[in-house]
Amino acid sequence: KRFILPLVLLLIIIIAVALNGAGGSDDPGAADPATTASAEAGPTAEADEPAFAGAEDSDVVGQAGETLTLGEIAVASTAIGAGDDTLGPTLCTAVTVNNESTETIDFNAFDWKLQAPSGTILNTGFSGSANMITGGQIAPGGSTTGDICFDNARAEAGQFVVLYEPIFSFFSDRAAWINNR
Questions:
Q1: Using CA of residue 71, residue 40, residue 79, residue 126, what is the dihedral sign?
Q2: Residues of 70-88 as b/e, b for ≥16 C-beta within 10 angstroms?
Q3: In 3-state terms, what secondary structure has residue 5?
Q4: What is the rounded distance in angstroms from the CA atom of residue 128 to the CA atom of residue 119?
Q5: pLDDT tens-digit map of 7-49
Q6: Do residues 59 and 113 touch, judged by C-beta distance below 8 A?
Q7: β-strand partners of 92
Q8: Which residues in 118-129 are b (16+ Cβ under 10 Å) and which e?
Q9: How far is CA 69 from the centre of its chain?
Q10: CB burial class (10 A; 0-12, 13-18, 19+) of residue 178?
Q11: S-S: 161 plus which of 72, 100, 115, 150, CB 3.0-4.6 Å?
Q12: C-alpha torsion angle, residues 8, 10, 15, 17 (rounded to 10)
């Protein structure tokens, strides 16, 4: 009995966070996110070709360094570069998340992934920088900046894609930054 009440409370908290969403718009029906002027043009690809392997129609795509807008959240990712290799080779990007909404939003290092040239999608690592983003909340009008790093044991070259898809948002599209390395 003493384990059931804490589990029920935990479940209620998870559902509440999921329903509030990180970066979700106040209008869940708004499926067409705005992008910055530089991101609207996207990469120079044929109209019928995806910007990258695995691209989805709803992706907001830009080049490394551009600021992309998902609902009321403006997100930027710099070009990827080598991170600290004390625990093995890493690739890192400096990211900024600006909350332009009237609601507090959640952020988390696990909102980020890196698609390697081979098509493998890597989760964030736990090393690579002294300025790693962890997780928390951003008040309306606030922002956070830090590094996101990924293991780079295969040392591939080619097109990498930094992907941002908040895990606690059911109504937000995905942002993608093209990096050629």
A1: positive
A2: bbbbbbbbbbbeebeeeee
A3: helix
A4: 22
A5: 666 666 666 655 554 444 343 333 333 333 333 444 444 445 6
A6: no
A7: 81, 149
A8: eeeebebbebbb
A9: 11
A10: buried
A11: 115
A12: 160
Token digits of residue 96: 């900024």
Give residue-wise pLDDT tens across range 102-145: 999 999 999 999 999 999 999 888 888 889 998 899 999 999 99
Return left, alpha or beta for 54; rule: phi > 0 is left, psi -120 to 50 is alpha, else beta. Answer: left
Question: How many alpha carbons lie under 13 Å from residue 19 in its C-beta half-sphere?
Answer: 6
- How far apart, in Å, are the Cα atoms of 30 and each of 5, 33, 71, 103, 160? 37, 7, 8, 17, 29
The model's pTM is 0.71
